[in-house]
Every structure is written in C-alpha cells, then in structure tokens.
Amino acid sequence: MAELIPAPVPGPFLYLRDPLFLWTSCLFGINRYYLRGHFGGQFPFLRRHWNDCYLIPAALPVLLWIFRKTNLRRHDSPPTWPEILEWTLLWSLIFEWFFPTFFHLGTADWRDALCYASGAVIAGWFWNTPRSSTPSHSPAPRG
C-alpha cells in the first residue's frame, strides 16, 4: 500500500528564510566572532576549516535568491544536485586556485575544497529529501 502513495515533493524553496540557511548563517557568526577566538588554539579545525563547511548552505540560497529576482532562475524549487555541484566546483576553483594564484589572496588548500564539498553534500541531502506533510506525532488515521 505504501508504494501506491507518492513521496511528498519538497515545497518551494524559501531562499533567505530556508531553515538550513538560517542555522548555518548563525553558526558561521558564532564561530567567526566567538568560538574561533576562544577555542581556535585548542581546536585548529574551528579556526581553519569549520566555516568552510557552511559555504554552500549559507551562500547558495543568497545567490539563487538573486538569480530568481533577476529572472536568471526560473523556478522556486530547492537547489538541484547539478546546481549544488556546479557552484561547489566553481567556488572551489575561485577560492582555492584562482585568487591564491593570480591575486595572491588567501592560501590554496585542498582541505577547504573538501569542506565545501562536505557542506554541499549535507545541504543537498537536506534540500532534496522529501519530507512528510503530516507531523510525526499525530495519530494514524483509523478506518
């Protein structure tokens, strides 16, 4: 019987009101302005790579919102896997190769690109996993 019921389709993407965007933006700020300064010496990952994990979930919704407002994006669906992959690869090349090589800005670090990719996979899973339209605490219908 369950196979006759289609999986719920994710609703419209909320862009700047997306829960993942809001949480990762808050976590970015907490790490940037508090944790790094207080615990960065004890936990180098906090100082060097933690915020890199938030690149896709915190930056892609802003970019897609701008694209939607300028009609460069024609739908309001959650970010697709090709969009996520495309921007992860592009930003990895820009931040970890182009800027360090040609403008001597930043340091090329493959581990940063790995963090971008790990954040992208988690964000992609979050945005593209169907969610039930009924709350899990509600009783099952009788009949």
Polypeptide structure, described:
The protein has 143 residues and is mainly alpha-helical. It has one domain. 58% of the residues lie in helices and 0% in strands. It has 5 helices and no strands. The longest helix is centred in the middle third of the chain and has 23 residues. The protein is globular, with a radius of gyration of 19 Å. It starts with 18 loop residues before the first helix and ends in a 15-residue tail after the last helix. The model has no long low-confidence stretch (mean pLDDT 88).
Question: What integer value in Å does the Rg equal?
Answer: 19 Å
Number of domains: 1
Which residues sit in consecutive blocks of at least 5 with pLDDT less than 50? none
Give the H and E element order: HHHHH
Helix content: 55-70%
Number of helices: 5
Strand count, sense and closure of the main sheet?
none
User: Number of DSSP strands?
Assistant: 0
Residues in β-strands, percent? under 5%
* Broad shape: globular
- Ends apart, CA distance between termini: 15 Å
Round the mean pLDDT to the nearest integer and report it: 88
Structural class assignment:
mainly alpha
In short:
The protein is mostly helical and 143 residues long. It has helices at residues 19-39, 44-48, 55-69, 81-103, 110-128.
